[in-house]
Amino acid sequence: MDDIQDKVSKTFCYDGAIQLCSKKTLRGSKTNFVKKQGGFNPDLTTSYLKISSMHCSISSVATKNILSLPALDNCVKPKRIYKKFYYKGEEQKISLKELKNTVDGRHKFIVFPGNNSEIIRNIMSKRPNWDEASHSDFMSANFIWHPLSYRLRFDRLLPYLPIQVVNHFEFHNEISNKKNLYNNLFKFCKEKNLSISDIMPKNFVIDFDSKFLHSEIMLFVCFYKSLKKKGVSNYWIFKPSGLNRGKEIHVFKSLKVFKVLLENASKRRTDFKSVIVQKYLEKPLLINQRKFDIRVWVLITHDYKCYFCKNGYIRTSSENFSLNDSTISNEYIHLTNNAIQKNGSQYGKFEEGNQLSLNQLEYHLPVGAIKLPDIIKRMKEIITFTLLSVKKKLNPNKRQYCFEIFGYDFIIDEELKVWLIECNTNPCLEISSKILANIIPKMLNQAFCLTVDKIFPDENNPSIENPVWEYLTTLQR
């Protein structure tokens, strides 16, 4: 006990901000404090907070609702004393109050609104030893669920007690951004002697901030003209690289329309800085004459294990497939996103929520052709390629206790070839059919079993029955 007490440093908390100092520093003169004046600079790659000043006052927290720690400027009267503990050979900083919570086994979670966040709240509330905290109490929260990762300050997540878990990786956009997904996969395929043309439709990336912008545009224009000379059908999809749920997606077939779309997009560079021009699959496999795609979920855990959710689902369009001048702009034919389809007059006419379970696809495949297990196997293979392509990029700063659920979209053409369309962060969790009511809660609950429950083990945590997550690969280096 005496050895531990010799190692104790005192910590002061000023209106929610934490400040640490050793006994030696406390014995220093006021003059030394003034000389060491500086800002609050937490280095969260270590197991403690480094404070560059003790002569400071509270400054306001950064704006834009970004979760962060407040800065300290001038010294004020301490309100609460913290102590430094050594636990399992690792230095940990924890308040006496948080120590009590840790000993008692109680944990706090925060759920920020958006994307049917109520379902997350319901799942976490059923877990033993978990209590919901207010949004302002994020400093002491053990699990933070936020639909939008840019609201999180990953550099200020606590790597010491209390442990903080978040539902995003800091650089998930290396795979969820359409431009980055294609570029990373292209490099991976080149290294592994694979053909990206067998994985994704032809893509052209146009980056408005690139010094090669003109060349990027001309690459597409030249390719377009070469297809036109060959008499090949020239339908393309124009979509911003950083948006999802069908936003700002257009089908076009003329360079005149392409120019208009490009000019409009360049004026909205605050919303997105690049666009993808992707070859439209003009002969997709149809279900009852209507276009469809497949949504599957992929989980990357805090320890870099990757899982595939076998309970995917099919998203159908509301109107019969047709590709000509009169139907090219009809989004209820070409875009299967629920965010788009739910506004159509025929939404739900053929399937509740325009959705089918993935297993139901078996009944719509041509007799004697490829089987559903073969399609699923190919999707898993493609997903694994994309994950390995960002192995060194997803979490380069090695932030602890991050995990993420991604939504992958695939299309099958009439030759039964599987094509990757995109990968999404914050995939839709809205319950718009009985099918989703059955699979989404189970998918999320078991994802938490593989992440949150592993980090905070408890004998009363729910067990996994009839697992829906299948192990794919690991990104552990």
Describe the structure.
The chain has 477 residues and is of the alpha+beta class. The chain has 4 domains: 2-94, no CATH class; 99-166, 3-Layer(aba) Sandwich (Rossmann fold); 202-279, Dna Ligase, domain 1 (2-Layer Sandwich), CATH 3.30.1490.20; 282-474, 2-Layer Sandwich (D-amino Acid Aminotransferase, Chain A, domain 1). The chain has helices at residues 2-6, 23-26, 30-35, 96-104, 118-125, 173-176, 178-191, 213-229, 255-266, 331-334, 338-341, 372-389, 434-449, 452-455, and strands spanning 10-14, 17-21, 80-87, 90-95, 107-111, 130-132, 143-145, 165-166, 203-207, 236-240, 250-252, 274-279, 286-287, 290-300, 305-309, 313-316, 355-357, 404-412, 418-424, 469-474. The strands form 4 sheets. Strands 13, 14, 15, 16, 17, 18, 19 and 20 form an 8-stranded antiparallel beta sheet that branches. It has a 4-stranded antiparallel beta sheet with strand order 2-1-3-4. Strands 6-5-7-8 form a 4-stranded parallel beta sheet, with helices on one face. Helix 7 (178-191) packs across helix 12 (372-389). The radius of gyration is 26 Å and the shape is globular. The model is unreliable at 1-103 (pLDDT under 50). This is Tubulin-tyrosine ligase.
